Structures are given as C-alpha cells and as structure tokens.
Amino acid sequence: xxxxxxxxxxxxxxxxxYSWYGNAxxxxxxxxxxxxxLRWLLQASRGKGPECTPMEITVHFRHGAPPVINxxxxxxxxxxxxRPSYSISxxxxxxxxxxxxxxxxxxxxxxxxxxxxxxxxxxxxxVKGFSTPCPYMFQADMFVLRLTDMPVLEPGVPMPRTVLSPxxxxxxxxxxxxxxxxxxxxxxxxxxxxxxxxxxxxLLGSITLPQSFQRSLTCTGSINCSLALDSPPWxxxxxxxxxxxxxxxxxxxxxxxxxxxxxxxxxxxSFLNFISLNQSQAGARPGAAGxxxxxxxxxxxxxxxxxxxxxxxQPVVREDLDVVSxxxxxxxxxxxxxxxxxxxxxxxxxxTGVDSGGSLVVTLLLNKTSVxxxxxxxxxxxxxxxxxxxxxxxRNCSTAFSxxxxxxxxxxxxxxxxxVLYPQTDDWFLSLQLLCPKGxxxxxxxxxxxxxxxxxxxxxxxxxPYGQCSLxxxxxYLYAACSCKAGWGGWSCTDDTKAQSVGTQNLATLLxxxxxLMLLPSIAVAVYRFYLVxxxxxxxxxxxSTFYHACDQPGVAxxxxxxxxTLQYCDFLGSVVSIWVTILCMARLKKILKYVLFVLxxxxxxMSLQLDRRGVWNMMGPCLFALVIMVTAWVHHxxxxxxxxxxxxxxxxxxxxxxxxxxxxxxxxxxxxxxxENYYYTHSIxxxxxxxxxxxxxxPRDKHKKPWAWSQKLTCxxxxxxxxxxxxxxxx
Length: 732
Hints:
There is one protein chain. By secondary structure, the protein is an alpha+beta fold. It folds into 4 domains: 3-147, Sandwich (Jelly Rolls), CATH 2.60.120.380; 159-262, Sandwich (Jelly Rolls), CATH 2.60.120.260; 312-457, Sandwich (Jelly Rolls), CATH 2.60.120; 502-697, Rhopdopsin 7-helix transmembrane proteins (Up-down Bundle). Strands 7, 22, 23, 24, 26, 29 and 31 form a 7-stranded mixed β-sheet that branches. A 6-stranded mixed β-sheet has the order 20-21-25-30-27-28, covered by helices on one side. Strands 1, 2, 5, 9 and 11 form a 5-stranded antiparallel β-sheet that branches. Strand 32 and strand 33 form a beta hairpin. The radius of gyration is 38 Å and the shape is elongated. Pfam families: DUF3522. It is found in: Cell membrane. Its main location: membrane. InterPro entries: EGF, NGX6/PGAP6/MYMK.
C-alpha cells in the first residue's frame, strides 16, 4: 500500500482567561478520508517578562463539532445533553515553550475541532495601558497519514488477504448501504504461514473524540470468528483494520466477508409528497381539489403497505432561516402517526458543515386522545449517522458506533424536550415507536399521534433575559455562544447560583446613576464663580454619565434613552473634557488663550476617543498636558509676583491639598480596585470622589468681578431716578 503524509497548520492565537465560551480559542481542521494516523502538534508559549507566571493551558478535542466544555462547573439548561469532552493540560512552568504530541489511530474523517483556554478569569477590571498582560500563545498543527489505494470490501463477496507482520496491519473499507439495519463481519480461513491457527485482532470503525465506539474482535485459536452490529452508519465508509498478534516473522492468511441486513422502508410516494409540498406553500389553486382526490384514495393503500415494512419514513423539509438557524417542517403536518409494529423515522439534515455551531432542539407533544391504551408509551431516540430501529427491544438508543439520546412521552407526561448542544455534522434521525406495557401483541392495531417540533438555533432560548447570544467566527466557520450578566452563568445563562437579586440590580443602578448628582455642588461652585463654560461641561458630563450607567446595567433595571454606543461615547468624552477644562481653569490663563485651548483640546480628545475609547492615554494624555500648562502658568505667575503661587496658605490647606488627595484616591480606586463583583459601588465612589475634587480645585473668581447680586438685578420696587444730564444755557 502507498501511504501519503499531509500537513495542515493554522496561525497561532493569543489565549485568554476563561469567563465564557468566547474566551476559548477554536481551531478547525478537516481530516481526509482513508486516514490511518492523525498526529496533533500542540505548541504553547508565554512571554519572558516578570508579569508572566506559570500557567496551565487546557486543550479540548472533539470530532464533528466544537467541544462542549464547562471549566467553571456551572449548570446546563434542563433537558440538555452533556457529555464530557476529551481534554489534556499543557503546563508552562519554568519553560517558556511547551510542545505536546497527541496521536489518534484510524481517526474518523471529517471536521475536527480543538479549543484552548487559560484558567478561570480573576474578574478584575484592568484599565487598558496601566498594566501589561502576559501573552500566552497557542498553535495547533495537524499531520495525517493516509492510504491512497485502500482496498474496498464488497458486501457479500469474500476477500482473501494477507497480513504480513504485526508492524504492518491490514486496512480495508466497506460502504454501508442506506437503510442497513444490521451488519455481520466474518473472518474465515484464518491461518498463519506455518499452517497454524491465527491470532489477529480486528478493529471496526474509526476513533472519535470525546467518545469512541470502535468495535474490537479478537480471534485466537479459532479458524472462523464473526461480529454482528446493529444500525451501522448509513452511506458511510466503514474502516476495518486487521492486526496480527503472532510472531514478527509469521504472516497471516485470512478471508473477510461483510454482509448487511437491509430494512425496507414504507413511506408516502414522492408524488404525494410533491402535492403536499405544493399545497402547503402555494395554497389552493384551480384544479387542486380535483388533484387531491386520487391522493386521498391512495393513502390507505400506501398505509397498508407500511404495515409490512420495518420502518415508516416521514418526509421532512429543511428550511434555512439565518446563520446557524434551521427549521424542520413535516410535509404531512406536525402530527406524526406512531405505531407499535415498526418505528417512525424522521431525517434531520445537519450535514452542511455549518450547522454544528448551534443547538438542536427537538420537542415531542403527545395527543392524549389518540392513544387508546392508558399505559402506552411513545419511545423516541435522536441519533446521528444511523437511526435506532429496535426501540421495542432496548431503550438506551445505542447504534453500532454511536450513542443516541432517549425521549419518551405518555399520557401522564405528554411533553418532552431534548437540546443537543453543538450537534456534530451528520444526518440526524428521530425514531419513534409505540410501546405497550404488556408486550407488543396487546396493541397491534393501536396508533398514537405525536406532534414534532425540531429546529436549529444559535442559542437556546436566546440566552434568556440575563444573557446575550454572540455569533463567533474562526476563519470561515461560525458558531454561537452565550455571554451572561448580572451574576448568571451556565451554557444558556440559566444557572442562578451567583445571580444578583432584583433588589441588588436596582441598588447598583441607583448607585451608579445617582452618584453623578454629586457634580451638582461643582456646577454650583462654577456658576457662583462665573466659570460658565466649565459649568456647562460638568452638566453635560453629569447628564450623559447618568443615562449611560442606566443603560449599561446587566440586569432588568435598565433604561436607554439613546443608542448604547452613543451614550458610552458621550460619557467618556464628557469625563475627559471635564478634567481638561478643570486643570486649564486652575492655570489662570488669559481668557482668549483658555477658550482656544478648551476648543482645541476637546476636538483632539474627541478624535482620540474615536480611535480607542478605553485606552488609558486618552485620559492620561490630556491630563498630563494640562498639568504641564498649569505648572508653567503657575511658575510664570510666581516669578512675576516674586512669591509662591497660589500665595495664600489657606488656599493650599483648605482647597488644593484636599482636592488633590481626593483625585489621587479616585484614580487609585478606578485603576486598581474595580472588579466585576464590586463595580457598582467602587465606580460610584469614583464618581463621588472626582466630583468633590472638582469643587475643591476650582479657583476663586476674579477680583474685579462682583458676586451675583440677584436682589439688585431682579427688583420689584419703585426707585428714585436722578437725572444727571447737564443743562446747557444759551446766552443771547
């Protein structure tokens, strides 16, 4: 046989600490057919700075769909199917780089996914630019070894083969036909080159992660051995590997035979399906009533034919709605007839390659009036690749190489729901059958009506009221995940273990909004001292900061008067401009120069915030430049007057020092103390401290300006006016 090796690589990604699924970095690979060996090369590295500490990187693997992970140990939604992912840990302790290999023999062909992430996030809110985070990088490369001429085992045709040595196993493949109910693999005429009984091991199927259902058959000391499989995957290539367990120099001669038991389905004819599809989409048309009469007459004859078949197939139409959003519609109506003689089968097509990034939801609703037996139960199985055809014998929903998901409805529990998170790319099947409590012979003529609702959605229940469904992208692959808020967690934001109560949410909203009213004293001081431009800026900041925080709340206490992005931009702009005008006002510049700097600085701040809204230098840059201007102006004033400026010690002790102290405390709280848990009161403290510092730092009014004399400007009494006009006399 000719082996060909191939290499696939993707660019490295910077890892993040885990708080939701969007923090996990996803890698998407495609394994070709006839692959006998798959090797992952996992490379992890970290920076060399002092901020880089030893770290554990968790890597998850899955075939067919992104891995379903739960690093935080939160609860999944009810009725959701969760199977643990296959994961490994890569340690970065002393070494700056770590290289790990993961080998998978006879892997399943198709899509493979790798997800990598750091441990749980600490929850601290870091100001961008104050600290340098350590870069942790991860890259995954894939090596495959595949056969270019793998022999094909024809069903029902014996194939003689030779296994040369234990180091050179034999690989063959067989195509499973559609509607195959069972498969039997037989090994005969198995002898060694020394004419002794053979010792071989046969592996049927491919390895999939996190769970592998590869079947093993060991033949030792016997000439013939066989293995029977129920419900093999339809229209799939099944790989068979034969390994010799004998001595290194002895070859093994054997003969392989694969036979299938094919199930004859009973379903409505394609003509009837076409008529039903046209009637459901276009409605009644001229001549439709006449054309539906033969269909009504032909239905009973077709139903009688279904009684003798091993399964009843119902036609299903796949309707694509949006990205990772599909609805399945039954042509014969939402109600499906279910009998005890043979299972009813529905095909849910999810093999497009872009459907595995959502959630498959299947809901069953039993019509209680349609069941004649009170204790009868409708058993259902949702499985991938092949349907479950023996619901009357077993209810664990297992097929030859996969494990399905069971469902059941009865008169006591008439509704059942199943949520498959990130369903693997394949054909999915829903099998239903009526089960009688005392055996199938009791209800031979019974029938139940079950309403089936099946759809694919990006996020189940749209992540609920405390979550946001985000559509993520890795190269051309799209998948969805929930980002939770207000302390809620879980895959669909249904875990309320750490959830904030409604009272806590209201308190957080009130603190973050009403704390902005502390700017009112600063506005009053600015107006009293004739700093009207500064007072206008403070009013603008107070207004938009109040309504931005009212809109920014994660819970139910939310009020948005404008678009969220507009409110956020105006809040950030007002905050930085307020600091800018306050420091320039303290510099005591000439009016024309001060107002020119006001306008020019505001324009530059608006531009920088548009470029990077959360950068620390958007705030620190204007502050430092304004401080340089203020210090320069103070030095100029001091040199001109030949004494320290400001000259009054009371001004320093009772105004400047308290204002500077409050400003430094506010900056410390903002930069080093805020976390996701204490944000609502630490940020409120920041509002209060900054507002109070502004009231202390504003300089006194100019000496030539008189205070506001409202009693003189707004008078409501008589005044005696004196005529100061000069009298001119003419002399004649």
